[in-house]
Amino acid sequence: MPIVRRGMRGTENPSNSSSSSRLQVLTSHLLTPQTAMASEKEAALAAVPSDSPTIFDKIINKEIPSNVVYEDDKVLAFRDIAPQTPTHILIIPKVKDGLTGISKAEERHSEILGHLLYTAKLVAKQEGLDDGFRLVINDGPKGCQSVYHLHVHLLGGRQMNWPPG
Hints:
The chain is 29% helix and 18% strand. With 165 residues, it is an alpha+beta fold. It comes from Sesamum calycinum. This is Adenylylsulfatase HINT1.
């Protein structure tokens, strides 16, 4: 049975100094939407694809707090710390299994890929995004992927434009 949560995960006291300092480090480069986009591009270009543990592994292991909105045995969904839309949620598989990006997907990943998309639909409904939403998967440096743990961005709460980025 899925768990729907609203609140911090991991360190329960958001004013905890170590949690607070970690979040400050993570968000220190995100001062404005323009610098956030530039910093995200820089982070993507600097990121090195690898199977090493990522910030998402730390969130899954409760080493870093997050605002979880949905969790089941396969995926975790939590609010982005630097939202680009009124609703910006990241949906990640709990087990990476070599799936550092969508370009690394193999046939054996079909079930989790489908589950990520189905979860996005459930979370969008839970968030009241009845008028529509966008799903984004960044892949590789030119796709602006900065964390090499497959993740789906659920974006909504405002009118989207086309073409994106």
